[in-house]
Amino acid sequence: MEINKVIEWFRNWTKLKIKIHLNEKLFYFREKEIWWASLGANIGFEQNGKNEGYERPILVIKKFNKDMLWVLPLTSKSREGLFYFDLSSIGYKSTVILSQLRLLSSKRLIRKIGIVPPEIFYNIRQKVKNLL
């Protein structure tokens, strides 16, 4: 990617990040839920958000409190292997990226998409534990 495009990309993300930080809106979320979240412009192979809102779907793995949660990003690309979990069996054209577990502020949440059934969620959490 051209250096000027990268600079503009990070500049735009920084402006949006300030708005997100100052936002007082609270979202009520639970484990097992899939949300759109502003993940931002990240470094290297970290999953970035897309579009103007730097958005990406995420799965809530652990809720610590109303402000903090562990999440796993989703991708629309079909992937297989130790670091992925396919959600097509429950109607989502998405794959969970198990190796990209990260802590987020609930301020990054945008809107709820759906929920993962308990037995599928249990399998995802077990795969994450096995990676740890």
Short key terms for the protein model shown above:
132 residues; alpha+beta; SH3 type barrels; seven-stranded antiparallel sheet; 7 strands; globular
Polypeptide structure, described:
With 132 residues, the chain is of the alpha+beta class. It has one domain: Roll (SH3 type barrels), CATH 2.30.30.110. The chain is 26% helix and 30% strand. The protein is built from two helices and seven strands; from the N terminus they run αβββββββα. It has helices at residues 3-22, 118-131, and strands at residues 33-38, 55-63, 68-75, 84-86, 95-97, 102-105, 109-115. Strands 1, 2, 3, 4, 5, 6 and 7 form a seven-stranded antiparallel beta sheet that branches. β4 and β5 form a beta hairpin. The longest helix has 20 residues, at 3-22. The termini are far apart.
Low-confidence stretches are: none
CATH class: Mainly Beta
Q: Total number of β-strand segments?
A: 7
Discrete helix count: 2
Major sheet description? 7 strands, antiparallel
Q: Give the helices and strands as they follow along the chain.
A: HEEEEEEEH
At a glance:
The protein contains 2 helices and 7 strands, in the order H-E-E-E-E-E-E-E-H. The chain has helices spanning 3-22, 118-131, and strands at residues 33-38, 55-63, 68-75, 84-86, 95-97, 102-105, 109-115.
